[in-house]
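Hey, quick one: can you model this chain's 3D structure?
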Amino acid sequence: MKKLFYLFGLLYCFPGSAQTVYHVQTSGIGEIYPFGKDSAIATITDIQTKDYRMAAFNLKTMDWRYINSKSFTIRPGQNGIFMRDVKNGISVQHDASVLYTNDGWATANTATGINTYVAGATKAGYYAVTTSGSASTFHFSADGGTWSKAKDQFGLFFTASKENKVVAIRNMQEMVVSYDGGQTYAEYNVPTNQLTNAITNFWLTDTSTYYITEGSNFWRSSNSGTTWTKIQLPTFGYMAFSDAKTGALINSNKEIYFTADSGKTWQLSPNLLPAPNYTKPFYVNGYLYFGNNLRTADNAQTFESFFPSLANIQPYDIDFNKNGFGIISSGGGQLNISKDGGRSFYMQTTKPTGEDMMSVKVLKANTLLAGDRKGQIFISKDMGKTWSQKNTEISNLNAVRFNVSADEKTIVLRRLGQPLISTDGGETFEMNVMGGGNHDQAVSPDGTIYDASNFNNGGFTDSLEIHTVNPANKSKKSILRIFSANTVVSRIHMASNSVGYVLGVNPTTYDVHIFRTDNTWKTASSAGVIQAGPGAYNGLISVFNFGTDTLVMVPHNKNFYHYTTNAGKSWTIDSLRIFGKTVTEKIMGSHFYGFGNYIMGLDNNKLIVNSVVQAKDTTTSSIGANRKSNFRGISLYPNPASNYIHLEVENTIAATQLSAKIYSLDGRLVSELQVNNAQNISVSALEKGMYMLHIYQSGKMLGVSRFVKQ
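Sure thing. Here's the predicted structure for all 710 residues.
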């Protein structure tokens, strides 16, 4: 049997293991199938192929991850996915074939002897129904792969199951029931002939409570179908029940009704479903879920997102603090807030302004700063619920990016030659005029402000000039000129109080010249030249440092970025990849919170989260000679490495039980080997880039450590 899926190496089947690559787009979830206490399987549109992939959800923690690395070659059918537990399940496909898994969809095989569009899971196994003309045949499988006939010659019907009970009903006149999970069936007569329309839905809330809808009529039985009560529904639509009494109904107008008395009375919520389309709902642990990314726990008084998605607006900037609180700025003043490190986002209903929000910053106390296209600054101290404007002049200078000192008292909003500067933690801002031409500003951790511009010598731009800025008297002082013929200043960045970088772009060749200082701009030397093409490193450039030697530069509106791990001696160009495929969408906003850990906002309203920001995150330390893993008993060196990397594991761990796997950042398993407590691992055959080394003891992962092959 052909194996259809391959394990994506950085993840385990279901939430609860190490974080891994996410990707998100506003189209959100295709279908979602809950099972167990707080688990679900969902189909999500692939960012590249538009086919479906599977994702596992923990509906309690709202954590989710992909569980197979290949798209479905055919999309899941109407009845989709059925799971017995976190490892065992089946999926009905559009061509009526059935896939089954026993490892949580890390791999899947095609079942034999069955083609169906109707199926389900029970405690004992799986049931499926095939039809020929007006007759139906029931089938059973213990493992999802091999099927046998359980009952035949039954009319067309609707089926439902709960635990080990399977019920099929036809026109409310005939019913067959299985009490052993679909292995055997018994026939019963249904004592009513009052049905006037075709059955549209049938389900069980427990093993004795049945519900049927036909047209706008609603039928309920609390004694396994022996007697039935007819109830008039307030509208036609999708229904869900959390128990025998509590339920919800949503119609095509996105109106939501709730019942607490088994459907006898219904109460209309004052709020419509805030989504483009209405979808079939379901209940899990007190929450009513809608497949388009929303859930409610208070009868639709409020809604929250359970899947990371963006407002349908262009993203511009992204920032997170180390508490996992983050914000994405978008067009039209729209902001998207995350409180869980990027697992999920919700649209903030309060907008600071109607202008495009070009720059955002999250401070330690979850205070938010936002700068719009006209250079206005807004601040929120209640996680975006209310905003106040901090500057009154309107210069129409685009807000570029915020720079903040370590103590967050000095804040600079870069706006070319007229930055807005605060020295009181954002309470007040003053405009400082740096002069004409190209300018950029940076703030060192100790609060020193630097300005970079071009020095004009007789009409020729032949050098980059560095200044210190005194916000008290709005003055600047030239401290260094760096000769770089025909180079326009683009970006200055301080990696520490003494180490900084400045970028200049040749407007003809588009070469990016990078210079570095190690002594607070007393002197500077070349840190390399990169070729990036027209417009790559002009304007909205994002720069991130991890230590002083590792630097990541992300251009605006391109699908690549550059990084160095050796202070600019060499630079590597990299692109966004998901499952080995290069993402073609352009990067509009980015946030690196660890080397190789990022959240990217793309054009076409898409978001890529390759791992979430953990509260009190410590992954932003430099990659140095002895990079520690997230398990303190493991170390790697040298790092970066060329030919080999030396692994050391504390000797309290038995070496005979140790193994290692090396993964690329896009999830490919590139090496798997047994290891000792101390040994060299050859990396000479690896391509240049960053990798993840997973260490296992008796099959259980001890920790993950990153290293760079140069």
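One thing worth noting: The chain is about 0% helix and 45% strand.
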